Amino acid sequence: MHKILLIIKREYLSRVKKKSFIIMTILGPILMAGIMVVPIWLAMQKSDKQKVEVIDESYLFKDLIPEKDMIHFDYPPITLDQAIKGFYDTDYDAILWIPHNMIEGGKAIKIFYKKQLGIGSEEYIGTTLGKMLHDVILAKNKVDLNLIKSAEQYSKFNVITEKLETTGKSEKTNTGLFMGIGLGAGILIYVFIFLYGVQVMRGVMEEKTNRIVEVILSSVKPFELMMGKIIGVALVGLTQFLLWVILTTTLYSVAGITLLKDLDMKQVQKKEEVYTIGADLKYTDMKKIEKPNIVTEVMNDFKSVNMVEIFFTFLFYFLFGYLMYSALFAAVGAAVDNEADTQQFMMPITIPLILSFVVAQAIIQNPESQMAFWFSIIPLTSPIVMMVRMPFGVPDWQLALSMALLLLGFVITTWLAGRIYRTGILMYGKKVSWKELGKWLFYKG
Amino acid sequence: MQHILSAQHIVKRYATHTALDDVSLDIPAQSIFGLLGPNGAGKTSLIRIINQITGPDSGSVLFEGQPLSPKHVEQIGYLPEERGLYKKMEVGEQALYLAQLKGMPKAEAKKKLKEWFQKFEIDAWWHKKVEELSKGMQQKIQFIVTVLHEPKLLILDEPFSGFDPINANLIKNEILKLKEQGSTILFSTHNMGSVEELCDYIALINKSKKILDGPVKQIRKEHRSNTFEIEFTGNMMAFTNSLWTFGKLGEHKMDGENGKAQVVLTPGTSPNQLIESILPVAQIHSFREIIPSMNDIFISKVNEGNPLGTQSNFTE
After folding, report:
1. What is the Cα–Cα distance from A258 to A148, expressed in whole angstroms?
2. Is A334 within a domain?
């Protein structure tokens, strides 16, 4: 036991002290915070305004199209031909042509451009004009626009799902949140197994190709060396993960808060924009019904998820999923002489991993299906799939069965891997086949 | 005689071949024991069994009379033929780690390591990474790590490979010193010169079987072939005739008047009879018995068991 601790310590320290670990630990959160913050930041940047000249032959929209951050509309009193001829003498980026028969179903408007406006702007023009046209048509047919608006307003409702317990108590649930938690946990396990499983494999191969392994094996048992490495690498992963969480939250809250404040202000201003259509028609943003604060609502929903239970099951599947897979990765590392040969043995390990990841995305739609059940019971796929199911509630017996099978799977795979490992690690210059691996299982220690 | 290690009827089979077939060895304490054999004979398999890296299919190994068990790991030092170190690790840190794996307390290991580093004049390497060292330098570190915990039994597999002659000599002297201090050394090599120089006992393994063992001196004596080398002045023809029925002429050459010839004595003839018959025709300058080198014995023994084996070449 003392020796396995020594091995764990070495595996841990030699990795944590590496430059690449320190760089990744610092860079990771910056990247992650970047992924979250940069889009917001970019969205807030004022790009050059695009200037569009509107040739409105229908006379419906003159001076009325609401402007957006990056688009400015002008309505020069010229014909389309004139506009096209003089296009390159002006600083307009595009000409928007609206035909005279727009209201009778003109079907098409045209945008001529020097510089592409971009999908965002094109869509904005399309939907805005569509909405405006819609209102104009209604108004022309003497339909009370306000009636329509209020009908729209009052026919909007939320779907509230509540889980009814046998005790008769019911709980409000938030399916979106469940999906988020489940998928998030599943992805985390998936990434962790892959990232650090491969590190275990590399470490084993390093020892084998360095030829240090025989020296070490004269002091410790192969199984101790293998488990020491697996546990040491797991601790490295946990350390990195923990540091990332801490650093990311710090970075995100520092960088995020300042940016978000700015953004909130802008959104508030936007909502108050009022524009008119025609002289007598008022189009007002009528979303005035009290909406509860989204943040407090999500916080309430979190309470409906049993976070403690999820956290502990997460730890369980996270740990044993990793242990089971990394034992297999270690066996692969021991069986081959170089990285190129790992491919054929990696395949059967990665297939259940990738499969469970794919299945997870289907299961999220239907967490109580047969497929969800089986994949969350079978040990190789259960670590990811069960985590996806967890927030939706899993019957106790299923959870117990899945955990018991995972434990059993862990014991069996580690035993198998240990046998392949101890033979392979001392085998040099031999290309190993599947048949060969099978034989190794039955060699006497 | 006290045996530090005694392997009894060891059998080790792999799927397609038998690595060791009923091999028994007794290694006397405080001796240097040479384990010889061609490549693939089963030496490494045997060494791995002694190191408890693998186990035998049948047979047993006794260490100082007790069945080999994990606690004996600390009494054995092993320098494998295929050896290496973690490239990215610092020399001192790595040596400490390996010593601790052998069960040494950290403080003691550190103290002993410093002593060895001073002895080999390599103090400056402590904080260097292994990849910065030359191969010979790495070998030195490996040797130190192997002997650091003062094992009773040292297993050295080709210990001189990778050393220049000066360092090989340094290591050789350390090995002899360790023997004086009471260690037993199991020494596996292809270098027959060093076997003659160092080993007290040998065992020869070929094709999974032990084909020869015993004290080196005795083995060489037993393998004498009654061959004598004679240097003389005279006529080759006359010399050959004078041998008559006492001996058979082997390799020979003449350089003007001076001749050198190997003669194999006919059984039942004494060396004195041979000299007497040569005396009248030639002036004898030297007359000595050729005692076979370990190299010769190795080659002839291995070829005996080899159906394709032909005559050995003289390669001394």
Report:
1. 40
2. yes
